[in-house]
Amino acid sequence: MLQIVILGTGNIAQHLFDVFSSYTNITIAQVVGRNSKALEFFKEKTETQTNFNNIKNADFYILAVSDSAVEEVASFLKDKNGIVAHTAGSIPMKVLQDHPNHGVFYPLQTFTKNYPVDFKSVPMCIEANNNESNILLKKLANIISDSIYDVTSEQRKKLHLTAVFINNFSNYMYQIGSDICEKNDLSFDIIKPLILETAKKGTLFNPETILTGPARRGDYKTIDIHKSQINNKEHLKIYNVITNAILNKYGKEL
Amino acid sequence: MLQIVILGTGNIAQHLFDVFSSYTNITIAQVVGRNSKALEFFKEKTETQTNFNNIKNADFYILAVSDSAVEEVASFLKDKNGIVAHTAGSIPMKVLQDHPNHGVFYPLQTFTKNYPVDFKSVPMCIEANNNESNILLKKLANIISDSIYDVTSEQRKKLHLTAVFINNFSNYMYQIGSDICEKNDLSFDIIKPLILETAKKGTLFNPETILTGPARRGDYKTIDIHKSQINNKEHLKIYNVITNAILNKYGKEL
């Protein structure tokens, strides 16, 4: 039985709590957080605690707090023997170096409150300061996911950057599409199959080989028509900068 | 039985040919194209023709040629009684106005050669110059798809622009992600579940309400770290312009 204390009460804490709770070989000994209202989510199923000086003993202390709070919260775990691991994409492992056994337990996925995620397919990025902790963090990760990766702090920083392009910026493309549809009396439903197929093909093919569209084929006439149709200044800037990047990459004239 | 002549031999022509061929209430009378090599794809299953003066009679003439060839190819159909419809996103219907019955039969999806598409979920955007042609084009569309929309030429132009943001530009985000992974010894597989989940959530939620990331929360420290990690000049421009658009949209300081 693996004993876990979760520190933090937000989005990631809730998702990890839900998935850990669904396995009988994991026990969540405690959830610790300052915000007693946020602790209500957890308190029917485990012990909750607002005082960071009253943290229980466990095999793993999973820090699911905001980036800026990781170091401070970790400082309350100085006398603990279990593994202290944070879940942040952009924080180096070394902020936990005061602990004999520490590491990173980073689920590379987008999480939305109250929207369940199939954790089995979530890549778990693992890093640890010693071999034993690495093995134990992977043992825990393996229970909840089929997709485990060794990822260094430097690589994880790059993954976090990648996730911004893949998730945040694709989402912003959807927002622009939604905005154009709304302004032209078109249901956004009409574009949803394209969103899904674009993503599916992005995972089945090398994205470079399947790109289509006016920039890819150097169709300046269509590009000009598109530009003339964009009223939003920010959207036009985005259209220009990505179109130019594509023209450039595929050897078309700017 | 609906009789169809397909004009054109490219990607869309092949996909429409495949889906039409799979229904017993549709007959493809002929495929017409200049390129005899490209016609080989079709010739085992239907009559093929390179001479545009020898086009058979049919209920529908589906023009699946490049945008710049639509008008010219349509000129060979002047004496035909069936419905002449093109399949292009950005070409107005009126280029076909010399024909008594004309319209548009635009499948809003990304198509890749030899990669089958589930047409049942492909939105078919229909426009016609008279009520009878509209009904007949919808009858044809209804056989292959469950998703039929009335879309004017002006709206279709906007949809085509939307598709560039949704498909081409999201694909380019994947390319940037793939590039960062490659340069940092990370398998692109690690990012694929995020691509799929991002798209899925983009269709289940209003994209505006689920956006996360440093720009959304005005986390300038992380934005600066990200910028310092981007070596590619074009990628940095894209990062900056989308980040600024998000900061601006969500009322954060630039």
What report would you give on this structure?
The structure is a homodimer of 254-residue chains. The first copy, chain A, folds into two domains: 2-151, 3-Layer(aba) Sandwich (Rossmann fold); 156-249, ProC-like, C-terminal domain (N-(1-d-carboxylethyl)-l-norvaline Dehydrogenase, domain 2), CATH 1.10.1040.20. Helix content of chain A is 43%, strand content 15%. With 254 residues, chain A is of the alpha/beta class. The first copy, chain A, has nine helices and eight strands. The longest helix of chain A is centred in the middle third of the chain and has 31 residues, at 153-183.
Q: Quick recap of the structure?
A:
By secondary structure, the first copy, chain A, is an alpha/beta fold. In chain A, 43% of the residues lie in helices and 15% in strands. The radius of gyration of chain A is 22 Å and the shape is elongated.
